[in-house]
């Protein structure tokens, strides 16, 4: 109970819970819409989703400052590739939060002359760039982990391999694929924060891909991806050791 109280006392914790609720509503609404006798339930889910989305906007008002702090922290990374990716991702996140704040100001009626569609597309574009750069960083980290696992495996081999058998091209390709997947699995298994961050970014990028028309999805896929991403975010907030650290 104490851990739950500490979690909900954090702005990021409340935002993750609201986000999980929002995307759960989207997923359930998508699943119930085809059923003729579920119109009332669908309307209630739609209203709840809208209310939760509005509530989340209040939590995100201070995220511009947090994103600027992330730029400063990222500049201290010792590895060049993560440093560049994180700095550029944080810069795009700053622009995204500025666009998001402008859209919020318009939605509450403080400024009516704002072109909602234009700012919404700008927000989606910079959110997409931020996630894409974060995924590049994840893939780079995965490659380093796989290299380390392969190196450790080679050191453990005590005897030379047996005389090679004759394989067909198809057998060699299958063996290579199996070896690659096993190496990937072992690398992510040894580094859960990297797995969580990769899954989170991959699921998050589905939404801007759909908004920008790069890869169209349905609300069910976006809702499922958002829910999985929110659960990963909840884990990293509740257990800070599960958050991917900057080297």
TrEMBL record:
Localization: Peroxisome membrane
UniProt KW Acetylation keyword: no
Pfam families reported in the protein's UniProt record: PEX11
TM region(s), chain numbering: 220-239
Entry keywords, A to Z: Membrane, Peroxisome, Peroxisome biogenesis, Transmembrane, Transmembrane helix
UniProt-listed InterPro entries: PEX11
Origin: domain of life: Eukaryota
GO BP field: peroxisome fission
GO cellular component, one term: peroxisomal membrane
Protein name: Peroxisomal membrane protein 11A
Gene: PEX11A
